[in-house]
Amino acid sequence: MTDQTNGLTYAQAGVDIDAGAELVERIKPLARSTRRPGSDTALGGFGALFDLKAAGYEDPLLVTTTDGVGTKLKVAIESGRHDTVGIDLVAMCVNDLLAQGAEPLMFLDYFATAKLDVDAATAVVSGIAEGCRQAACALVGGETAEMPGMYAAGDYDMAGFCVGAVDRDKVLPRLGDQQVGDILVGLASSGPHSNGYSLIRRIVERSGLAWDAPAPFEPGKTLAEALLAPTRIYVRSVLPHLKAGRIKGLAHITGGGLIENPPRAIAEGLEARFDWNAWALPPVFDWLQRTGGVSNHELRRTFNCGVGLMLIVAPDDLPDVLEGFARAEEVAFVIGELAAV
Fold this sequence. Notes:
Blueprint: H1 17-32, E1 60-68, H2 72-79, H3 85-98, E2 103-113, H4 118-134, E3 138-146, E4 156-167, E5 183-188, H5 197-207, H6 223-227, H7 235-243, E6 249-252, H8 257-260, E7 270-274, H9 283-292, H10 296-302, E8 307-313, H11 318-327, E9 332-340
Parallel strand pairs: 2-3
Antiparallel strand pairs: 1-4, 2-4, 5-8, 5-9, 6-8, 7-9
């Protein structure tokens, strides 16, 4: 290897190794704050270990999910608000695990940008750590990629990866147990969560409003603040019901809305029969529908319409389920029932 005294450096090519190292140091305490039984969340190795026995599992199956935040990131980037999209990233993965009956155990993230802004990246990871704390899930590692020429200045993208576990006899959906008359329970969303933002951004463009304008549907907040409300994480309130065997099926209402997602949790020969008058459409969706001239069908197949999770429970279990959610300060309401196709 010949020493060169005047050659190009990685920094001159657009990649700042020092900035990456600074980011790692900043996020180490964030990762430590997400410790949980089975993981010590130490960063710096080439991989992460998890002790399922320490987490209390006897006959576990591993469950994995991966997801992103989509074009909601454009709202964060354009408004300069980076501290909540990390919560979205965690939420989209851990809520999917619940649909299999699984408990989230460990989370990893991938963050890619043209030029690393350490402050913005730290804000993003602080949101990821907050999401992991809400989900009682350990942030065990990740990857930061600085790729000049791949992204426009100031842009970034990210993906999340989550590993969970469920004991073999608790896997969802329990298709063989579902029957006509089972109750559909909705858990309230915090807004559009992380879906439909390409349409949302077109509607905002049509409205002529700037991101810092007052939100027409939420007094006291700017449009960006209101639309960046992070995806609700349902892990702590739902897990007790999963472990007690009270839930026969669960659908995370994401892309595809209330049209495409429920069938993924329902047995063949049955369908979700919604009572669309059982809950009020939250103001954000009413504003989006009116401003964009969006039809009811398009609204229901694009957005969650106020229902973040749909649970399937037996009528006899309904009182215990609703009481449990009330104690957990989760807004839960009956939205329909299973019917024969």
